[in-house]
Amino acid sequence: MAERNRARPQTSPAQLPLELVSAPGHSRDDFLEAPGNAAALALLDSFPHWPSPVVALVGPAGAGKTHVATMFAQATGARMVPANTLTLASVPEALSSGVLVVEDLAADAVEEAVLFHLLNLAKETGAHVLLTTRTAPAGFSLSTADLASRLRAVPAVDIAPPGDALLAAVLVKLFADRQIGVDEATVHYLLARMERSVAGAEALVAAIDRAALAARRPVTRALVADLMRAWDTGAGQEDEGYGAA
User: Fold this and answer.
1) CB within 10 Å: which end of the chain, N or C, has fewer?
2) What is the DSSP-derived secondary structure letter of residue 77?
3) Which CATH number fits domain 34-158: 3.90.230.10, 1.10.8.420, 3.40.50.300, 2.40.10.270?
């Protein structure tokens, strides 16, 4: 299929374009490798020969923890459970497949008794658990000494936020997924102003595509400059769901 910047459909100005592109995927094919995520990918590829049955994937919001965790779940059949939904009663079922991802773990995300039960049962059953968290569990401030000791033994693998080179590649890929070709000047303009995360890039590209279709304009530096200025002042944010960061 030919790329667009494409001929715009003949719609009336008031007609809103339909969103025909699927949501960005979280498969291995959708993941762009970079030095900052190399250790996370190595962890995924080394399963089940981990240094410990429980490992923490540590990084700030937007670094790609969910993408890596989803790839891990797809490859292993792991269940994915938000930390704040775990209870004493739900732990056995969560571990029933033998592989579990606990997302967004924090010291205050789950009761200490629940987390301690999870770690004990995982050890008893030989289950593997991947914890995703913004800070290494070894640094959690906890009142249960045995739990704190157990978490200090959990290996932590860091994933760094995307740098300019990775974000540029992500932008080009996201536009290409929508059959839109963008030049280097447009990408550099966006890099200087966008939210520094893959999720931010996904939201930004979707918003630009919708706005370009509605305006029947090609995606150029001039268009994105107009859009970013409008979003920065609040104009059109309700429709596009994105403001300049």
Assistant:
1) N
2) -
3) 3.40.50.300
Under 8 Å between Cβ of 57 and 43: yes
Read off the pLDDT of residues 54-70 as tens digits, 9 standing for 90 and up: 999 999 988 889 989 99
Any residues with CB less than 8 A from the CB of 109 and at least 6 apart, and which?
A: 83, 84
Q: DSSP letter at 99?
A: E
**Contact assessment for residue 203 and residue 241, using Cβ atoms and an 8 Å cutoff:** yes
Q: What is the domain partition of the chain in residue ranges?
A: 34-158, 164-240
Token digits for 110? 């789950």
Instruction: Write down the pTM of the prediction.
Output: 0.74
Distance CA 24, CA 70 (A): 13
